[in-house]
Structure formats: C-alpha cells, structure tokens
Queue: 2 jobs
Job 1
Amino acid sequence: MLAIKNLHASISQPILRGINLTINPGEVHAIMGPNGSGKSTLSNVLAGREEYQVTDGEVQLNGKDLLSMQPEERAAQGLFLAFQYPVEIPGVNNMYFLKAAVNSIRKQRNLSPLDAVDFIQLIKSKIKEIGFDESFLHRAVNEGFSGGEKKRNEVLQMMMLEPHLAILDETDSGLDIDALQMVAKGVNSLRDGKRSFLVVTHYQRLLNYIVPDVVHVMVQGKIIKSGGKELALELEEKGYGWLEGNP
Amino acid sequence: MANQYIKEVVNQTYQYGFVTAIESDAIAPGLSEEVVREISRRKDEPEFLLAWRLKAYQHWLTLSPPEWAKVKYPKIDYQKIIYYSAPKSKKDGPKSLEDVDPKLLETYAKLGIPLHERAKLAGVAVDAVFDSVSVATTFKEKLSEAGVIFCSFSDAVKNHPELIQKYLGTVVPYRDNYFAALNSAVFSDGSFVYIPKGVRCPMELSTYFRINAANTGQFERTLIIADDDSYVSYLEGCTAPMRDENQLHAAVVELIALEKAQIKYSTVQNWYPGDEEGRGGIYNFVTKRGACRGKHSKISWTQIETGSAITWKYPSVVLQGDHSVGEFYSVALTNHYQQADTGTKMIHIGKNTRSTIISKGISAGRGQNTYRGLVRMLPTAARARNYTQCDSLLLSQTCGAHTFPTIDVKNATAQVEHEASTSKIGDDQLFYCKQRGISAEDAVSMIVNGFCKQVFKELPMEFAVEAQKLLEVSLEGSVG
Ligand SMILES: Nc1ncnc2c1ncn2[C@@H]1O[C@H](COP(=O)(O)OP(=O)(O)OP(=O)(O)O)[C@@H](O)[C@H]1O
Ligand SMILES: [Mg+2]
C-alpha cells in the first residue's frame, strides 16, 4: 500500500531525517512521539503540501510514485489526511464542499458524478454514524465548529471519500469520550482488510478502540522504534525519555 | 503557489474585446453651449429639456472634478470627447429586429446575448443601448398591455414629456455633483420605465449597454418610476470592446418609488478593465440614487462590479416615506490595476425606515477596492434602523482593501449596526481543498462564491448564474 524509503524533508531546516515505513493493505499503523518530532510534517509531506521540500527519498502508494503527484491527484489515488488543525472555509456550505470533493475525486477516477439524491442519502447515513446533527451539513465548512466538531467533520469527510489510505493526525485530540468512541467506530467501519490507516496520536487510549498492527515511535524526524500494540502501553508508562537515550 | 495560481486566473484576457464596424453619425469632439444645443436639436427635444440642459451646463462650468475618492487617473480632457454618436442605420431607424444592423446583432451574439432567442426564452424585454441611441426594443406589446412604459429615454421625451418634466432631476439634481451636472447637460439617451398604480411588471426589464464608437463618452440617463402599489425588477448589464484610450462613462440613474411600490435594480458591470499594466479601460463615474417617496416603499440595489479601470459609484436610497426600506447588495472585484471606490448612502428621513447594506469587496493583483458608505439618520427618522456589513477578501499581497464608513445619527431612537471583516484566501484553505480532491481553480471559485453568496442570492436567477461565471472569468489565474 504505502512504501516510504529514506524520506528526508525540510522547511527552512531539516525535519524528516530518513523515514522508512511500509504499510501493507489492511494494516493500521500508529505513530507516537514527542511534540515537534515531525509527525504532522510527515502527514503533510505525504499529502503534498508545497511548503515542505522533499530533499531525499521516495514514496510509493499502490506502486505509484506519490511524490510526483499534485495534492488533488494524491487524493484521487485514495490518500486522505484528517488534519490536526482542520481549516475553516467561510461561506462554503459543508454539504456543498463534500459533494464537490466526492465528485471531483469520482471524476478523476472516471466515475460519473453522484446525483443530489444519491449523495444526500449517502451523507445522511454517514452523519448518523458519527453522531452529527444534520444542521452541521448546512453550516460553512468548519466555521465556528468546536475543536471536537472539527475532528468529527474530518472523519465524516473520510467516510464519504472512502480512501485507500487514511492518515489521521491527532484526530482523537479534543474529543470527548463518546465522540472518541464514535470516531473509532467510524474508522473501524472502514476497516475491510484492504484499506490502511496511519494514526498519529499522543494517547494510548485511542488504540484501545482502533487496535493497531504496528506502533512506531518518532523522535527528531526518525522512527527510532517500532513494535506491537504493547509498545503504546509501555510508552504511556515510561514516556519517551528511555528511548531517546538509546536510539 | 497559491499566488501563482491566482495570477493565472486573474490574468485571463478580456473576452469581449472587439469593435463593431458601424458607421457613426457623430458630432465633432468638444463641449460647448453650442454642442449642448446641437444634441438637443438632433434629438428634437422640447424647450424645457434644452433649458434644463443649459442650466446644467452652466453649473458644470463652475465645478471641478471631485478628488476625495481613493482613485487615481490622468486628467480627463473634456474637449477631446465626442458627446453624441448615433449608429447610422436605415432611414427612421429599425422597426423590428429584422431592421437592425446584422453587425450589431452579431455583436450581441458574441456577448452572449442572442437578442431574440434569449430575450424570449428568459421572458426578458431587452432595450439594447448601442452607443448612444436605443436600436432595438422587444416585448413592447406585452408590456403596454399591462400599461407599463419601457422605452428609450428619447422616446419618453417625445411620448411622455409630462412624466419627464415632472420627475427628471428630482432625485439626482444637476447640481448634485460634477458628473451628474455633465450628464444632465449632454446625456444622449438611456431608458425610461413607468409602472402604473397597482401593476406588477409582468417580466424583468433588462438593458444591455455597450460602448462602441471610439472616444465616445457615454452619458446615459435612466429614470424609473414605480407608482403606488407597483413592482418592477430592472436588470442592467454591460461589456465593452477592448481599446487603448480611456473612455469616460458618466451615467445617471434615478429611481422613484411611490406608496407601497418596490423597485429592484440589479447591475452586472463588466466593462473593459484595462490590460495587465493598467492601460486602457473604462472610467465609470456613475450617480445612482433612488427615492422611497411613498410610505412602505422599497428600493433595492444589487450590483456586481467586475469591470472598468475606475469605478466611482454609490447607489443610494433616500428614505422619505415612513416605513420605507432601502437595500444595497454589492460585490466589487478589482484585479491588475483596477480601482473601485464604491458604496452607498442611506438617508433616513421617515419614521421606522430600515436599510441594509451588504458590501463584498474582492481584490486581486494590484487592485484597489474601497468601500465608502454613509448612513444618516435625520431628526425625523424615529426608530429607523440600519445594518451594515462590509467584507473584504484579498487574493494577493499587492492588492488593497479600504473601508470608509460614515455614520451620522441625529435621532436618539435610531439604531445603526456595523460589521466589517477582512480575510484572505490562504494557502492552508487551498491545500485543504486540494487534499479533498478539489482543484485549486475550483477551490478559489468556491471560496469566492461562498464569500459573495449573500449578494448573489439577491440577483434574479438568470443573472446570478451569469454573475458567478463572470467572477470565475475575472478571477482565472488569481489566487494568493
Ligand atoms: N511551517 C513551518 N515553519 C517552520 N517550522 C516548522 C513548520 N512546520 C513545522 N515546523 C517545525 O517542524 C517540527 C516538526 O513539526 P510537526 O508539526 O511535524 O511536529 P509534530 O510531531 O506533529 O508535533 P505535535 O505532536 O506537537 O503535533 C517542529 O519543530 C516545527 O516547529
Ligand atoms: Mg502534529
């Protein structure tokens, strides 16, 4: 699914310093690591944010060279990023935005656009799953949404776009306990043995709901340790210090 | 990156740049009392109108061009302007579309206005102003059945001189300002509308303006009177061919709403804005004002301003009748070196009068966009209310947005509310859209449309679609 080899990226200074990571179809990988270690940078580089320069390495998504693609092509190839800080787009209706997104991805995949009726049916079933009120569909994208509502909106978009690889950057931060379970349910409903996930989180708790196959620890732009789901528990107990000492 | 994209969108060349080769029957350039008399003579006008023109001309001589607006342009040489030019056509002018010069119809087709089809399909009567004389008017019969008068200003002068004499200059007197005085002296033609008592105009009335002959200043005069209990929606739209020299346009529009009457006046203005370096383009110095004379009357101005090198325009409402309502909805877009100084004046005189101002300014390139507004509550305006919202959207680092709201309240029971905001299309917004599979181009038009939604929804359906397209074209290549 995703193969990252020796990825280096910088923004005014080097941030990612040789990332190697392979995610197979159907796997859930978690990345943990201290603030500023480069987790969001990795997410953004994978999604194609122009501000970051890739200085070395390569990335393949389903066998295709990801780094040569425009961000919207990456989306069409099935890459989805749930942003750590979702962006507000005043004046643009949430439902309209979602429809534009779904249909432009369908177009890039040579599928016919969903008509209004099909679209509304689809979205109504999805908002229930994440516990959203219908009124959110008629508000502007993320405008005035609470922190947790923004995160849930990201999950809603993910469920609508049905990506092959979803990157969740701290989607659990700021969620209340019920919302956390709903988000986890949303993610788990998409787990079908083929779809893959890269979950960035600071809290082991999320991983009780979304059980990862592999847990990685990122420190200073490198993955310094990988392990099973027990690693998250160990980190919760001991912090990062013991790892940073012996990379 | 976003910057680069916005540049591409904005830098699309003007599609409507072409000149129709039609012989013009023009008066030599220059302005003098003799020219004013000659215009009036050629139009075979009644004495009262000539007298009024001459008074306006004498007054204009005492004035100098206004300098308070935030626009810069080289001094205009008023002696180089041609003040009268009528397209030469068959004797006595066309009686129907078949009589219209085919070149002219071709021009309209290029502009996307296939006169017969579109007019009929849309149920719109088009009073097309080509240069300075109206050459085609449709749907006359249907309108006259309803008792509606919709004709060129010249025809109105001939056939309804009493209405002209009664109302002309009562909303915008020739003394009002420099350009209004100039217009009053030399106006060549325009549109006239009268809606009789109790009549709801059966169709939207529409005029497409187009400046054509070189060096011809356009001095349109529009007068719309809605008698008691009547309703009319009027659409004005325009494009101009590309040329190098700046062209002056100084129109005057007067609206009069009597008791319980409603006038909705919508404009899409798309004149040649000048090239990327700011050369050429139209100077648009317009005086538009409506008077809510009757109780419970209502006047709404909706404007989409994307064209012209310079726009100087403040559609206003004088709220005389008690419980009358004034509205102003505006989208003004400036790109390259375009300058827009626009806004409105709401003058509250009557009791319980209400006004709403929604102004959306979009600046790209080196465009300068200024909102200038006045809300005045006179001592008589008990419990009057105003709500003003002024938003600016910036698409580049080099453009500018400015707001000059003036509020003057002389009645303690009146309420005025003002909100303002400035935002940018940010890289993060564009990236967010692209990550969801939406191209930068679509993202920009989505965001701009979202920004303008409050205004677009005030436009008649047909026009709303056009306006949206127009913004897309005007913005192609311009995100930042
Ligand atoms: N646009 C930028 N300009 C300058 N520095 C940046 C920029 N973006 C990221 N950085 C720096 O890169 C480093 C990694 O940031 P990143 O956001 O990837 O960390 P993170 O691991 O996601 O942290 P957190 O857990 O706090 O979200 C930080 O030191 C950050 O300050
Ligand atoms: Mg982060």
Job 2
Amino acid sequence: MAKVMVIDDEPFILMMIEDKLKRAGLQVVTLRESKSAISRIREEKPDLIILDWMMPEVSGIEICKKLKSDPELSDIPVFMLTAKGQEDDERLGLSTGVERYITKPFSPRSLLEIVLERVGTK
Amino acid sequence: MSESELNRLREDLRVTINELSKTYEELSLLYRLTESFSGATVDELCDIIIEEITTQLNVKTIAVLLYNQSLKQLYTKKAVGRWQVDEETLRRIRLFRDMLSRGRATTICDVTTMEEMKGLGFKSILLAPLSGKKSPVGLIVVADKVEEEEFFSGDVKLLNTISSFAGLFIENAMLAEEIQAFFIGAIRSFVKALEARSLWTAGHTERVTRYAVEIGMELGLSRKELEKLRICSLLHDIGKIAIPDQLLNKMGALNEFEWEELRRHPVIGADILSELVGFVDIIDCIRCHHEHYDGTGLIGLKAEEIPLAARIIAVADAFDAITFDRPYREKKTVDYAVKEIVSNSGTQFDPLVVDAFLRWIESTYHIVMSDTKSGT
Ligand SMILES: [Fe+2]
C-alpha cells in the first residue's frame, strides 16, 4: 500500500485530504508544520508528497528544493498545492522539480484521482 | 472524558470533515467555472456545461436547451448521448416549460409513467433551469446514469450549482452577441451604402473581409483577433466616403493628382473613425492598410510597426483588386494575382502573411503553389 505524506499548515485541508486518501485505502502521514519536514520525510520515506506552497517558517518550494538536492530523497514525486494567482511563480517553481501543481481550492475527488493514478498500483 | 463521549466526538469530526470536503468540492467547482465561463461565447458556455457534467456525473445523455424569448419556445442548443428530441416534441412537453420558471433542479425517477415524455426513451431525468437575472434562459436536461441508478441529492446539488451560475453567464453572452451582431450589421449596411456610390466596388468589402479572415485563420489568430480583423476589414475603405464620385467612377487610368487624392483614403478613414474612442487599434489598422512592408508607403511605417491586421488586409485587398473588375485595370486570373502578390512579398507585403495567403489559396482554389514560394 502506497504511503502519501501531506504537509500543510491548514488543519482542515490536512484532515480533508487525509480522510479522502485513507478511504481509498492509502496510508497517510500528515504534518502541520514545515520546519521538521525534511527529517520527517527521511524517516517516513513516502511514495508521494503533497506539499503546500504557502507555509509559515519554511515554504513548500524551499522544502522541495532541499528534497531534490538530496540524492536519497530526490526520487520522491512532489505535488504542490498553490493558491490562485500564483501561476507566474509556478513557472519559477518548475526548476524545483515539482511534478504537478494543484490550485486551491481543488476538488478533493480529482486530487484523489491523480494521486491514485500516480501511486495507486504500488 | 469517557469512551462514549470520545466516540461521539470522533463521529462528529468524521461527519464534519465529510461535509467540509463536499463544500470544498463545490467551492473548487465554482472557481473552475468562473475561470472557464468568463469571456466565453454561448456556444463555448454550452460546451463547458456539458463537459463539466460529463466529468462529474456518469450519465448517458446531456442536453442544453435554450429559450427563444421572441418565439417563446425551447430549442436544443447542444446535446450529447441519446438526445433525439425534435423541436415539435420539445414544444409539447409541458414539464420543460414549467421548469423554466422554477428556481431549482428537479429529478424525475421514472419518466416512462408520464404521458408526454414516455416516447423520449429515457428512464430517469434530472432537470435544471438556466435563469438569467429576470427571465428564463433555458434548461439543462440530464438523463439516465450509466450504472442505471437513480439520481442522488448530491447530483441535484451539483446541477444546481452549475445551472444557477451558467444561466447568468449565458444571458450575458447572448446579450453581448446580440450587440455584436447589431454592430456588425450596422457597419455592413453602412459599407453597402458607401459602395452603392461606385459602379466598381460592389461586394469588394465583403470579399476582402472574407479573404482577410480566412488568411487570419491560416495564421492561427485567436477568436478575438479574428473578430477585430473582421471589423477592420469591413471598415478599411471607409475613407473613400470623402473621395469624389467622379474619381471613384472614373474609367481608365488616374492621373497623378487623382492618385494622390485616392491614396489619402486610409488616413481620412482613420480620421473619421477617431470618434470611436477606445478602439485605437482598429483606427490604426485602417490608417495603415495601404502601408508597404518595407516602409515605402504613404506614412512610411514598416514591418511590425504596421498592425498585423493591416498587413493581412493589404494582401486580401490586393487579391480582390486584381481578380475583380476595376476601372483602371482589367480582370485578371487568380494565377496572375498570386504571382503579383508573391513578387511583392517582402517589399509591399509581409512575407509571413503572403505565406499564409498561399496556403489559403492552395486549399481554396486547389492550386499547388510549391513553385511560387514567396522569397524574403
Ligand atoms: Fe483601401
């Protein structure tokens, strides 16, 4: 069973994604603060990371950059949650290795679909 | 805290998250719709509605019916699946008409029991009125889920969200299209009146407009750009209103002074249109429609300094001028016109536009142009 790690500072978003993915039989680890993200990722070794862009302390993009420069973690695919109007920043973020951008407010149903599409067979 | 209390809280939280998830789903739908609906035409709006319902609900049939205010009738605008309801039948179904004035969507679990609808071949349907600000706009009809189940309250809610939103957008788009049609119609009538003065130019503007838009399509212009190009083409010779009749109708060649006078019509046209505040690009295009690509034209603008629409109109205009009777020139063949235009590519005409023109000629007149590629 695939393990998905969700990192977002908004508790409701976190709970909602967790609920949706768990119902589909996925293993879910959530994290509400971004400072310990890298060490938690190293511990958990998830198959996919869903990462919020806008977080206090460490931003999603910073976490992603660190991930991609770490040979041990660089293979983990990252889906980035962005707010509307960040399309320009998105282009900036492309070089950080984000595999997919999901604009908030997203459809939980289609989020589940693309997650399953990516890791469902594991 | 006791175990039962804890369980109750857990259950509450689960329900809350579930509700939240639904609300979030709806919110994301609204965001998506606002984005895709804005600026869309009536046709595009109907396509988006059908696409959205298709991805959200697994149904066999979707139809968007619009209400014709003057005829007081519904007609099928777009449909997918097994929608084979002719206009006559459509008019007879009272339920559809009644639904127009309703505020919300309704399901009918078994239409086979209803006399007026059992012939349609559907089992269960979901109806949602499309309402404008004050008057009905139309109706969305969704029929039969693929898994043969009934429609749920969630489906009704979803359709309500889409239809209440779409109604306003369709109403606006219809209004915009009406105004646009009136605007274009007014220009056409005006141009017709203008052309009636001259024995030679009847139909010139309409033909140039058609050529220009088709070349524009070859160039991959957007719908908006094409619409602008159409308006520019229709208005391009408006300045000829200030040219004396005897000059416009003159048989044989023009003398130098007459040429000078005629050459000023783009500038005069731009001047006349200067009242159209906020349409500077249209006015610029009219002013430049006889400019030469290499900068040797009347104003002396060159290459990209000349608006693209003007560069397109220049080619379309030349093509029509050569292939149709004019007082100072005899009618020539398409072949000859093409050679003329190609030989002036890069000097009078934009080579890119000439290339698109050649592609258009090839597909329209089925002439192979490979030996007359425009040189830059
Ligand atoms: Fe002209």
